[in-house]
């Protein structure tokens, strides 16, 4: 029997850990479109940024999960709709160490819900760091219904990322 394919889109603001999330999880070499950051403000944060997409995949039981990461910068937002085509679910990443990413996450949740009615969740990255944003506060700020999950994660840790996707896939099937 052939594997099922599940297209999972990973989105979020600039520097929330989308590329790291995919690199931590993918069982194949990640295809990325990183280019040098262009403004002094961006360069203070990191040296490169995704300009089109990241792509990786991994096997979860009998499901081949295809991971598509969106660019985080607004000037590349046209890629979001392209990557959302035929998605089976999406994750919106928030950087708990940078509360300014929460407003962008709220916008992205609404944008992706408009693209297609599929399961989604919020991934609270850098949960290993001290943060002033609790999951309860995050839920309130994003105005998420109780049925939408918030998963705590450390994108640099393969087991943490794998557990997020495993839980999301389980919850998405309910």
Summarize the structure.
This protein has 174 residues and is an alpha/beta fold. It is built from six helices and seven strands.
Commentary on this structure:
- This protein is an alpha/beta fold and 174 residues long.
- The chain has one domain: P-loop containing nucleotide triphosphate hydrolases (Rossmann fold), CATH 3.40.50.300.
- Helix content is 34%, strand content 29%.
- It has helices spanning 18-25, 40-45, 78-84, 101-115, 135-142, 158-172, and strands at residues 4-12, 31-36, 48-60, 63-69, 89-95, 120-125, 150-152.
- Strands 2-3-4-1-5-6-7 form a 7-stranded mixed sheet, with helices on both faces.
- The longest helix has 15 residues, at 101-115.
- The protein is globular.
Poorly predicted spans:
none
Helix amount: 25-40%
For the largest beta-sheet, the strand count, sense and barrel status come to: 7 strands, mixed
Strand content: 25-35%
CATH class descriptor name: Alpha Beta
Give the mean pLDDT.
Answer: 85
- Provide the CATH superfamily: P-loop containing nucleotide triphosphate hydrolases
Quaternary structure: single chain
* Terminus-to-terminus distance: 23 Å
Structural class: alpha/beta
Order of helices and strands: EHEHEEHEHEHEH
In CATH, the architecture is 3-Layer(aba) Sandwich
Compute the number of strand runs.
7
Number of domains: 1
Tell me, briefly, the overall form.
globular
Q: Radius of gyration in whole Å, from Cα?
A: 15 Å
**Helix segment count?**
6
Strand order of the largest sheet: 2-3-4-1-5-6-7
- The name of the CATH topology is Rossmann fold
């Amino acid at each position: 029997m052939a594997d099922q394919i599940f297209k999972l889109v990973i989105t979020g603001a600039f520097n929330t850990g989308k590329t790291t999330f995919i690199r931590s999880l993918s069982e194949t070499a990640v295809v990325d479109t990183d280019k040098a950051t262009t403004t002094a403000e961006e360069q203070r944060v990191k040296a490169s940024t995704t300009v089109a997409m990241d792509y990786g995949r991994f096997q979860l039981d009998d499901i081949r999960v295809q991971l598509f990461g969106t660019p985080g910068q607004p000037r590349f937002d046209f890629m979001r709709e392209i990557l959302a085509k035929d998605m089976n679910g999406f994750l919106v990443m928030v950087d708990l160490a940078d509360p300014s990413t929460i407003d962008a996450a709220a916008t992205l949740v609404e944008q992706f819900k408009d693209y297609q009615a599929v399961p989604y969740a919020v991934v609270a990255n850098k949960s290993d760091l001290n943060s002033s944003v609790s999951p309860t506060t995050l839920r309130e700020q994003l105005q998420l219904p109780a049925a939408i999950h918030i998963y705590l994660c450390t994108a640099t840790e393969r087991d943490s990322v794998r557990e997020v996707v495993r839980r999301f896939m389980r919850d998405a099937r309910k």
